[in-house]
Amino acid sequence: MGFLTLVGFVSSIATASSMAAELHVGDTAPDFALQASDGQTYRLADLRNKESVVLAWFPKAFTRGCTVECKSLAKNGHLIKKYRASYFMVSTDPPEANKGFAAETQADFPLLSDPTKETAKAYGVLNLFRMASRYTFYIGPDGKIRAIDKAVNPATSAEDMAAMLGKLGTPLRQ
């Protein structure tokens, strides 16, 4: 690799890093309006003051780790549904891809699509490959970020989400 190529590569890494927002616990979660695999458009603002929200960002539909995670949530989603919380998987894939992925994995929850990558940028999850990093955000009914998991285990995603909701004191559904 030539020196100028190396300088350009390092510069592009720095630029990509500086574009990403760094969100922290206590920050207000960025609002979004994203189309889902069920054909609806979901907005964070519509859930404010109603229930908690879990956003499980994933890199790419139909890939191994993402399939494992989606199947975990489909199989063990009942653990999450005990809590007053809406949960979503989110990627930068187009809506058609996430619709097919939801059908293939038998997801009984919405997969949100962010093909413009604007929401991924706002959450600071857009990586150098222009895909979302596998991070999970727990957002309280007040719209504040209550926890961020940057070490998601796809195989135990549902169990881990339910445990975190419990740890955060999320009320149970009546």
Tell me the number of structural domains.
1
The Cα radius of gyration reads: 16 Å
| Helix count from the secondary structure assignment | 6
Mean pLDDT: 91
Biggest sheet statistics: 7 strands, mixed
Anisotropy-based shape: globular
Brief account:
This protein has 174 residues and is of the alpha/beta class.
Any descriptors?
174 residues; alpha/beta; Glutaredoxin; 7-stranded mixed beta sheet
Task: Please characterize this protein's 3D structure.
- This protein has 174 residues and is of the alpha/beta class.
- The protein has one domain (3-167): 3-Layer(aba) Sandwich (Glutaredoxin), CATH 3.40.30.
- It is built from 6 helices and 7 strands.
- The chain has helices at residues 3-19, 44-47, 64-81, 95-105, 118-123, 157-167; strands at residues 33-36, 41-43, 52-57, 85-91, 111-113, 136-139, 145-149.
- A 7-stranded mixed beta sheet has the order 2-1-5-4-3-6-7.
- Strand 6 (136-139) and strand 7 (145-149) form a beta hairpin.
- Helix 3 (64-81) crosses helix 6.
- The longest helix has 18 residues, at 64-81.
- The radius of gyration is 16 Å and the shape is globular.
- The chain starts with a helix and ends in a 7-residue tail after the last helix.
- The model is unreliable at 3-18 (pLDDT under 50).
